[in-house]
Amino acid sequence: xxxxxxxxxxxxxxxxxxxxxxxxxxxxxxxxxxxxxxxxxxxxxxxxxxxxxxxxxxxxxxxxxxxxxxxxxxxxxxxxxxxxxxxxxxxxxxxxxxxxxxxxxxxxxxxxxx
Amino acid sequence: xxxxxxxxxxxxxxxxxxxxxxxxxxxxxxxxxxxxxxxxxxxxxxxxxxxxxxxxxxxxxxxxxxxxxxxxxxxxxxxxxxxxxxxxxxxxxxxxxxxxxxxxxxxxxxxxxxxxxxxxxxxxxxxxxxxxxxxxxxxxxxxxxxxxxxxxxxxxxxxxxxxxxxxxxxxxxxxxxxxxxxxxxxxxxxxxxxxxxxxxxxxxxxxxxxxxxxxxxxxxxxxxxxxxxxxxxxxxxxxxxxxxxxxxxxxxxxxxxxxxxxxxxxxxxxxxxxxxxxxxxxxxxxxxxxxxxxxxxxxxxxxxxxx
Lengths: 114, 307
Description:
Chain A is built from no helices and twelve strands.
């Protein structure tokens, strides 16, 4: 189990660190995406990062232009330290260790229907 | 899943021996296993230790009430790194599962006996009769097999001790090839004294050229080639005759055959993740060219790509 894992988002303004927990994170152009990337060549909800058992995975959500991991177009893949997810012009670096000197955002749990 | 795509998942990518530990967790330490899915069709190639992980996923699906697809498992050959996961493949123990296992008929022993042999009580606590799935073992007697919309054909590969089969799967105009466990360098750059080699010395230069042309024809234009690249060129000099290729040789052959993407496979057990990352940079610069749009990457456990 990772003690901490982060996504470092590059290509959209200032570099931002997103701490990953047990909640799924979606990435896309839509304001509904957890990480909104208002860039060309990115689908509304393009991909997701989620935890399964003790692994984090990235999965393409049938996007038009694809999700790449270290230059390989993937459907889904487990993530390892320093993996680079490429979505359109954006780059998301997966880091297993805690980032220093970087503002981080804790992603709140999704609201659930009751 | 798009109806005109194959989903190819790497469950085991390591050659020869499982290699657990921090040094191999990125590219994986399980021995060869690849699944190819299209709608209701599930093809698995090789039953190295990676098949255990696939089996867990399939068993989870069954427990969640999903209908398990008929399983078609093709073995390239029966060296232990390609069959040793089979006794740990959970669906084999689930009643009602239909499992077909295929392999080359060109072996000295009967395929069924070889598989039963590794579950002999000297090697394993239970024997194959404990499998509850309906099991059919086939020595392939046709050039091509249709599985749903998939068409699979195969050829025998000589340059691996004991022989090895390569497989090609087509869906419409999409093609993937699995051609692991072959020493391609024996065809492109035979040793000076190759005639003295007790296993392949009888194959003259003309025959090696013919076998190379046959290999290239088989992989020509493939969208994905899963190819043997166990050694760097430096390592290969000490491993001639072991039945595995050097990375530049498989990459050059792939480019010459207009393969679109090469997944370098069957990683050497001693090679760490950081070394493979180095290979990716070094050979990537050398072989990824804008002119050809050829791509190569090192197959990685837990990765699914669309073909």
